[in-house]
Amino acid sequence: MNHRGLESSAPRHRHHTRARTKEMESAIEQLEQQNQELRTENQRLKEEVAKIQEQLTKGHVERMTRVYETPRHPPGFTPQYGMPLGWNDNMENQQQSRQPEQAGQSEAQGSGPGPRGPFQPPPFEINRPERMKWDALEERVRAIEGTGSHGLDATDLCLVPNITLPPDFKMPKFEKYKGSSCPRVHLAMYCRKMAAYHHQDSILIHCFQESLTGAALRWFVGLESGHIKTWRDLADAFVRQYKYNEDMAPDRSRLQNLSKKDSEDFKEYAQRWRELAAQVQPPLPEREMVTMFIDTLPPPYFDKTVGSVASSFADLIKVVFKSYESSVFKVPLANLKISKSDY
Predict the structure, then answer these.
(1) What's the CA gap between 244 and 181, in Å, rounded?
(2) The whole model's pTM is what?
(3) For the chain, what are the domain ranges?
(4) What is the pLDDT of residues 164-202, one digit of tens each?
(5) Which stretches are tagged as biased composition: Polar residues (predicted)?
(6) 251 near 279, Cβ under 8 Å?
């Protein structure tokens, strides 16, 4: 029985091995095909760039030939030595209009000194549409080759190049933003600490990275300098990136449904509830906050605070602690988890 079991299991093992081998071979073939397509696309783009460059250069040479080799002077007119043909159309028009009066001067200029030297044509320039198409093709070639659009030069890595900080500048200490809280609150805190430089966008942009950490800092490093020209550009991009934190801010219904955990004491729960209440927009009035907090308390806290006349949240906490001192709760300290250090 054991031999037959081994014999029957052997073919299944070989079958699974062959299936995995075929899957690996198929995956390798797909990768090779993708690499071949990328190489073909890369070669095609290079040829297209070379063709465009050749056409632009050829067209430039033809234009230069027409400009500098075609005589445009009337018969009998001799231009000044050392000046190329077609150098100044306005001057030529003036000379043509005054040709009868300056015939003698033109002949005198013909016997002047020899040429000053070979003429150097102006540098070759590509117009804007051609330059944009050229840059787009080069960008695609770099993307396919994996070189990317950013190098390792300092000018490429800096969001604000050529920044100059004042000699007495001292970097403030910022609370680090991790990407999990309201972005507008962080911007307000940052701008208040940088109030002395409100009109210097380059300093505001450069120092903003010092107030970030973790994922938020990685987001900042990934920004492109071409998209961030002013502080407003950076602030708008920051709010768009972390706007979901504003949408997740607590509201009144969340505060009303909050409850004290068994593992936390009264002070910890009060602090947690108060921190969430501070994030509600629009802000809660103090009296409404007290009433809402009392409604979330479990017995015996609720029974002894429901009739409280406390006008502020801090006064309500004091009422709870004083009630414990007078033993109105009639429960051990270990159950309430309140110590004298809490007040």
Answers:
(1) 9
(2) 0.41
(3) 1-75+87-95+125-149, 252-342
(4) 889 999 999 999 999 888 899 899 999 999 999 999 999
(5) 90-108
(6) no
